[in-house]
Amino acid sequence: MDIYGKQPGKLARWGLKKSPWAFHLNAGSCNNCDIEILDVLTPKYDVERFGITLVGSPRHADVLLVTGVVTMQTLPRVLRVYEQTARPCLVVAIGACACSTGIFDGSYHVVGPLDKIIPVDVYVPGCPPKPEAIIDGVVKCLAKL
Amino acid sequence: MSWLMLVIAVVVFPGFLFTAALGLFSSWLDRKLSARLQWRVGPPWYQPIADVVKLMNKETVVVEGSPRFTFLSAPFIGFAAVVVVATILWRASIQPGTGFVGDLIAVLYLLYIPSVAMIVGGSASRNPYAALGASREMKLMLAYEVSFLIAVFTLVIKNGGILSLGDMVAYQQSGSPMIAQGLSCIIAFVVSLVYVPAKLGIGPFDIAEAECELIAGPYTEYSGPPFAAFKLTKAMLSCILPVLVITLFLSSAWTPWAVLWYALILVVLVLIKNTNPRLRIDQALRFFWGPVLILSLVGIVLATVGL
To answer: Side by side, which strands form the sheet with A63-67?
Structure first.
């Protein structure tokens, strides 16, 4: 978790744990993981119970859900969005591509798995991971707090 | 009134803390009811409090090149205006007969400031989405303010020129509530019920902060405590506007019946929000300058005639 400054106190940790707002960033994925993230946000899984909502602006986000192997085109964008996210923020790498370049290993446009670019807190493997696995990953992410 | 009493009135009761608690509860009610309507469970009761606590502990980021003072002060100016409105408005219901002549007009003026703060904050953000959101809120303000003013002046004509909220509550308590005093007042009530979701930016009128189209509208570049101030302002407005409608039309907001009216207004707004898609800005303008304006004009003409 990147905190940029002093350690968050108990109240800050409680707030972050009970109200993690998620921003979805596609860093060159085939969209399968994005569809699964969309599924997580539907009424069937009801993540609003845990305070998780999708926010449109990275400035409002606490959790960055990043899918996709980082391509040469998305590399500056991923870095810029990560810098724009207000600290403290957590990064979740979703899918086999974000964890370890997946099936695109060695391809001409691949810069690297996500943790070569920005610090990652939780890895959710799968191609694509089921919504239950994504929820499990976010829960483990919050339990770190 | 001594300074200590004044500070307590503004900060604790019935000013900031009381209205913020009620407002956060109202926003929770909105989210829980929306969840239930979508066959979900919804967030726990402390969710809006957790949101504000979390936002207060986030970093404040100021965009390079944006006017820093304007950007950071806009949310707090809107917040201050809402706190003042809350104090004046609740005092009219809790102690009817106090207040000053013209505090109805003061409240109406002060209620412009949160929307203008949103516009100023969005314009100071140096972001095209924020600029678009600010321009949409400007257009929406032009649309909804006129009909509501006409509706309020319908009431003033009907009760014989009372321009003080406290006197208006006293007049209603000694007679009958304004809504029972004729067709013109019922029309004014309907216009007010259309005004409240437009002012709050919910329902089919959440055009300025159009999440999906405009990232986050005027709030796109805000984070941390300034964003918490915006959220608190919106929560407090969602408490104050129904209270204003109840004070104007349904006699005092400090009676047990008022709790029922408050809940009923909120439920109606949430139902309308969940069953209607968002309007386009030109549709909203046409709606407010067409049917709603004509209705409010009919209301004021009926009031002058005596109905």
So the answer is: A53-54, A21-26, A63-67, A90-94, A122-124
Tell me the mean pLDDT in the region B165-187: 88
Closest by Cβ to B47, choosing from A9, A12, A51: A51
Residue B52 β-bridge partners: none
| Residues of A with Cβ-Cβ distance to B234 under 8 angstroms | none
Range of the domain at B118: 3-304
> Is B42 within 8 Å of A15 when comparing Cβ atoms?
no
DSSP per residue, A24-91:
EEESS--SHHHHHHHHHTSTTT-GGGGT-EE-SSGGG-SEEEEESPEETTTHHHHHHHHHHSPSSBEE
B245-270 pLDDT tens trace: 999 998 888 889 899 999 999 999 99
The per-residue b/e assignment along A89-102, b for 16 or more CB within 10 angstroms, e otherwise, is bbbbbbbbbbbbbb
- Number of domains comprising chain B: 1
**Which residues in chain B are contacts of A56 at CB distance < 8 A?**
211-212, 214-216, 220
The b-or-e profile of B136-168 (16+ CB within 10 A means b, else e) is bbbebbebbbebbebbbbbbbbbbeebbbbbbb
CB B91 within 8 A of CB B9: yes
Task: Tell me which residue in A18, A48, A59 faces B50 most closely, judged by beta carbons.
Answer: A18
Is the predicted pLDDT of residue B119 greater than 70, yes or no?
A: yes
Residues of B in contact with A51 (CB under 8 A): 43, 47, 50-51
CA-nearest residue of chain A to B41? A49
Q: Do B219 and A14 touch (CB under 8 A)?
A: no
Calpha distance B175→B33 (Å, rounded): 35
Structure tokens at B45: 């009761």
The interface predicted TM-score (ipTM) is 0.90
Strand pairing of A122-124 and A90-94?
parallel
| A60 closest CB neighbour out of B44, B47, B227 | B227
Question: How would residue B3 be classed by pLDDT, with cut points 50, 70 and 90?
Answer: confident
Pick B50's closest partner by Cβ from A19, A48, A87.
A19
B198, B211, B192: which is closest to B265 by C-alpha?
B192
CA distance A6 to chain B (A): 11
Number of Cβ pairs closer than 8 Å across A and B?
A: 88
Smallest CA–CA separation between B235 and chain A, in Å? 17
Report the b/e string of B200-238 with b at 16+ CB within 10 A. Answer: bbbbbbbbbbbbeebbbbbbbbbbbbbbbbbbbbbbbbb
pTM of the predicted model over 0.90 = yes
